[in-house]
Request: fold
Amino acid sequence: MLEEITSLDRCKAFINEVCSDTNYVDPHYLYDSNNLYGALEKKDQHVYANIYNGSIDGIFVLLILSTEKYIEMIIGLSKSEHAYNELFKYLEKNYKGYRCDFVINPKNILLKNILTSKNAIFENEQQRMIARSATNTEYTLDVQLYSKRWKQEYIDIHVKETYWTAEKVLSALDRFRVFLAIDKERLVGYLDVTYAYKQNEPYSLIVLPEYQNLGYEQALLSKAIQMNGTNTMMTLVDVNAKEEIKIYEEAGFDVIKGQNSIFATITI
Reply:
């Protein structure tokens, strides 16, 4: 039976057991255990335990946004098919028609098979990379912080099929920095990256095709890392995107082994 809980005190042994198993540990837990332990204090996040024969066999943290009919599984800890089935029964009973996103451990075949049976759409496996400091490479390319004079050009070249559109990023400059790459008074690329957290993340990195492989990607990333100060920066890159991984490495990112993930989405 799945029930919402307000304390994780009785769950610690179970959490330690699952998280010590590389086949079942949740990627978001590996990134930051506070994604679990801090969930009880976060708005719109709910923590559930599945109880079976008097014992816990699943812990789940869900972000639920009713106005947007959207759910994200922030944490999923279980080695039990029964627990996952109980989770999906609960979702199907209470949130029919919602979109639900998952970031899962590629080794968690149990959850992957259940999602497949629910007609989930999977993206390619992602490699986690971390930057703690910029490289010593000096770039002479013109990279600068966003200013209003470039607003329309920035909107024009920005990725359109994304939640964080140019307009939304510009309305959230309390958490985003926007870096621009300029060549001869022309906007040739941009980087949207968070800056308000201990661990920040690039959200969108675009360089016009004719300016790619000239160092603009590395220059944008390097500038963002420099301004990130003592905070870390994290990104996820397709494991097969060797050129993209190389760009991030040249800018100061390191590959973090054992923390790969797969994004999946379903409509409940």
Q: What stands out?
A: The domain at 2-122 is CATH 3.40.630.30 (Aminopeptidase). The chain has nine helices and 15 strands.
